[in-house]
Amino acid sequence: MNWDLSQWCPLIDDRCFLQWLVKVPSEQEQLRARQISAQQINKVEELWKTNPDASLEDLEKPGIDDEPQSVALKYEDAYQYQNVFAPLIKLEADYDKMMKESQSKDNVTVRWDIGLNKKRVAYFVFPKEDNELRLVPGDELRLRYSGDAAHPAWQAVGHVIKLTAQEEVALELRASQGVPVDVSHGFSVDFVWKSTSFDRMQGAMKTFAVDETSVSGYIYHHLLGHEVEVQMVRNTLPRRFGAPGLPELNASQAFAVKSVLQKPISLIQGPPGTGKTVTSAAIVYNMAKQGQGQVLVCAPSNVAVDQLAEKISATGLKVEKLDSACGSGCKALCEIKGSCEFSC
């Protein structure tokens, strides 16, 4: 057989293979056909992810085909800012929920253990999917067993405490009652999606829109893209920007620390593994050494707080962690080491 592409091109151009691949519509069917754009095709394919029976008619339903407003570089006021970003946050929340809830796994094999805190820990392998979703410590999962002749149906929620070198997930269960520890096969695992982070974003956007005094005038106008006078914080800069007990900073990390010490607001961005936690710990250390009072550090999760607290504690600073461990709105204060305060 001759595989010279130049010999096959006429057949491709004349669509000679078309009837082998798809059914060629008749002239009558072509007359009834409607023209659709590539954008509409993409939207239908997105709908198919949640509704395999979706059709073009579904695009005409209210809210389905609505495009969010484009992000601007400058906004008239906080209301306009909220009107642009609030729908984007909802889209991100919906996508995050869809991704996590689609990651259920069946026929999972579990081995059981008991942690130092006397709580049940389930170890199992959670197969990785070819997408951007990845399991990290702190994620909540639901472990289920459908039951059998000797065991009733059972389920429990826990959080990931670690990922082992053997790619096993260690899930610490909230409740230890009724755990089928004598069963190791036939379990199912689901992600537990939580809207807390997205609810906080929406709440902050609403507060920002209705109360101009919720942030300083400098931050308010900065967020809206207005021209503001450059402000510099008067600090005595250290000779070196690293901190004891931490790895040596590279040039970009040292520049980030210097920038934070000189400006009233800074944004540090970097992909995983670039040393953001170490850099943040170095920033807190240098701010504390300025002698202007305690440093308050916030993070979106307890896991993030713990990781940063560990790095800051390594510098010799006294770290106090503040969280709502008691669950009823009160605050539990625990001292980690020997003046820095954490909120989570």
Question: What does the secondary structure layout of this molecule look like, with pairings?
Answer:
Elements: H1 5-13, H2 18-21, H3 27-32, H4 38-50, H5 78-101, E1 105-108, E2 111-114, E3 120-125, E4 140-145, E5 154-163, E6 168-173, E7 187-191, H6 196-210, H7 217-223, H8 251-262, H9 276-288, E8 295-298, H10 302-314, E9 319-323, E10 332-337, E11 340-343
Helix pairs in contact: 5-6, 8-9, 9-10
- Give the overall average pLDDT: 84
Task: Please trace the helix and strand order, writing H or E for each element.
Answer: HHHHHEEEEEEEHHHHEHEEE
Structural class based on helices, strands and sheet pairing: alpha+beta
CATH architecture of the largest domain: 3-Layer(aba) Sandwich
* CATH class descriptor name of the largest domain: Alpha Beta
Largest sheet: 7 strands, antiparallel
Instruction: Tell me the CATH superfamily of the largest domain.
Output: P-loop containing nucleotide triphosphate hydrolases
